[in-house]
Design goal:
Layout: E1 6-14, E2 17-25, H1 40-50, H2 55-69, H3 77-103, H4 110-127, H5 145-163, H6 167-172, H7 174-180, H8 184-192, H9 195-198, H10 216-221, H11 227-230, H12 243-247, H13 251-260, H14 264-287, E3 301-309, E4 312-321, E5 324-331, H15 334-337, H16 343-348, H17 357-368, E6 373-381
Parallel strand pairs: 1-6
Antiparallel strand pairs: 1-2, 3-4, 4-5
Helix pairs in contact: 1-2, 3-4, 3-14, 4-5, 5-14, 7-8, 13-14, 14-17
Length: 382
Amino acid sequence: MFPEARLDVTLTVQSGTVAQVKVRSNRLVQASRLFAGRRPHEVTQLLPTVFALCGTAQVLAGLGAMEQAAGLPPQQRHARQIMLLAETIGEHGLGLARDWPTLVGCDPDLPAARRIKIAMVSVRTALYPGGDWHRPGGGTLAPQHDRITAAIAEVRGALTDLLGADPESILSNFQAWIATAQTPAARLLAQLQAPPLAGFGRGPFLPMPDQGPADLTARMAGDHDGAYLARPHSGDRVYETGPLARVAWHPVVAGLLGDFGPGLLARLTARLVEVVSCLQEMTELLQDLNASQYSACVADGVGLGLVEAARGLLAHRVEVDGGKVKRYQILAPTEWNFHPEGPLVRGLKGAAAGQDLERRATLLVHALDPCVACHVTVDHHA
């Protein structure tokens, strides 16, 4: 439907340091305009086909916006949160199984990636057997607890095989695991413990506030030309969103932040920590999950839906008039993290160069995890 989106990051090196960082994007931040004139339920059906990555999060943000516009309180919160957590685990698990091994010269563990993906995708149908989870107002929720429990157990097993130990025990003995495990994930984090790598990419750490910036609603409402969606900010702040911002409180991550700052080691470790946290939260939410029925949602109004997707805060804003969408906006986490004044640029500008700068910068891009392909170029100036 759209040309392949990508980011290009160019580092200009002068006198042995990164003097300038330019981020060019061809992402179509206003692609959501194609939803204008459609009915709310049509939009929520289209969202995962237009946005291939984090399709569940896109739909849930859309549902939240539609339901707020209709004056409804949040619907089926536990079930929707379980689906969101499942998608986050699937995205992070794919990175652990496919991407991390290649960063240390190993083959990706595609069987583990498949196990995690299949198990987490099955959660949606175990919650909504009729497949109507994307209906504004809520679908027909008929949770199959045994299937979801089995899916969680399958992911724990896959992660244990992938990491060489139970993921929860790893966080209890993090340094010992890094020092002794021979898995690609442990080897990668062991390599990143070297001081030049552990803190590479550190800069002012501005974590995204819970529920987004205080001025988010007003900024999006006033953004008629798409300038804010392309380069969001809150006053003079460009926040960082994603795993590090969400789990900076965890003792393992907090310790790494204290020792090395928000660099490569803390960022990649945060991804591992979040997988464990998501599995624990899924298990807790499942205990209080009960069946419920769909209730119709058709009303005019304005709404904002926010969800914490795998890569960070995702915001959908909708204006409904005459039962149809008049205006639709989407603000994705990539626009925060890869903003010209965002965490990637803050972490790279002023960094010491060296022959492996391109690899280190590419690792930082991977740690911040854009939702599109990203190419790094280093230009050396005398």
